[in-house]
TrEMBL record:
Required for the formation of a threonylcarbamoyl group on adenosine at position 37 (t(6)A37) in tRNAs that read codons beginning with adenine. Is involved in the transfer of the threonylcarbamoyl moiety of threonylcarbamoyl-AMP (TC-AMP) to the N6 group of A37, together with TsaE and TsaB. TsaD likely plays a direct catalytic role in this reaction. GO terms for molecular function: tRNA N(6)-L-threonylcarbamoyladenine synthase activity. Keywords: Acyltransferase, Cytoplasm, Iron, Metal-binding, Transferase, tRNA processing. It holds the Pfam family TsaD. Belongs to the KAE1 / TsaD family. Binds 1 Fe(2+) ion per subunit. Its EC number is 2.3.1.234. It is an enzyme of class 2 (transferase). This is tRNA N6-adenosine threonylcarbamoyltransferase. Its cofactor is Fe(2+).
Amino acid sequence: LRILGIETSCDETAAAVVTRLEDGSAVIEADVVLSQLDEHSAYGGVVPEIAARAHVDALDTLIEEALARAGITLADVDAIAATAGPGLIGGLLVGLMTGKAIARATGKPLYAINHLEGHALTARLTDGVAFPYLMLLVSGGHTQLVLVRGVGDYERWGTTIDDALGEAFDKTAKLLGLPYPGGPAVERAAASGDPKRFAFPRPLVGEARLDFSFSGLKTAVRQAAESIAPITDQDVADICASFQRAIARTLMDRIGRGLARFRETYPDATNPALVVAGGVAANKAVRMTLDDLCAGYGFQFLAPPHHLCTDNAVMIAWAGLERMALDMPPDELTVQPRSRWPLDADAKALLAYGK
Ligand code: ATP
Ligand code: MG
Ligand code: FE
């Protein structure tokens, strides 16, 4: 089975060609991603209208490039998979309509994929992880702990009640005068800082529910920065290091509870796994924290390679292939994109009604 994947939900335009072999393994034949970082960095965040126009400009060429790299034409794919949500509606429209047009012109089936499902299933492509497992998605737009029971079968155990974790990194960087995107800049600064200088809050730590909250942390960072004048590079480094420490401690508590709940839910699981996805997974402090935590709870810790953790079309293609392999029906060409689309809601029912 071979599929063309299309991803346009945020600020990456991406196309991929992926083949699934009989044994369930995958061959990535093409993986093309065009980041719009430069177009948005002047604004310190993603500007939806600019993103949508950039997708329009780039998508056709990117699809052609993906096909060329795979050495095939559209006649050689069995289906098309395109992200239908959640995300910025302008970008979703561009990608999904392109997918529909290709499906209509070639007569091939179209799979409208939930972007979060793409992130959730990536570790099956890279590591062949078996259901059920836990997935932590930490990106600029999402912070979710999800129980992955099967293809199309998800239960959200925790989510952020305010800012996403990547957003907390980006906002912290912004108010410290560090460049966008904030995550890598904060991590770099933190390397030479004192993580114990500031006692930043660890929101929701100790609570039984598995949700996250990061906006209080951001406020504490602002108060710390404003209390020092003039602020030196060393002060900034200390704030960043203390910020990362607060996040590590928060994750330890929140995810630790999640792992314990997984154990309670599946007492017979022999090789439980935690999978991490999203751009924040690149952060070494975050990775080390999760790695240690998993070791302590007897969980396997899986972090797909960085380019498959951030937004890409390989994961969208793979989610389509998983559906095809299970003979799940493709979508009607009347399918509508959804800017909001929770992973654990009845996807088909929601799509049928649009909006
Ligand atoms: P989504 O719609 O899936 O949320 P996104 O574009 O917001 O997409 P990603 O591309 O997966 O998310 O990740 C970008 C986020 O990851 C940004 O918030 C960025 O600051 C953060 N990030 C990247 N590298 C690091 C790092 N080394 N440490 C911490 N955060 C990082
Ligand atoms: Mg992105
Ligand atoms: Fe994403």
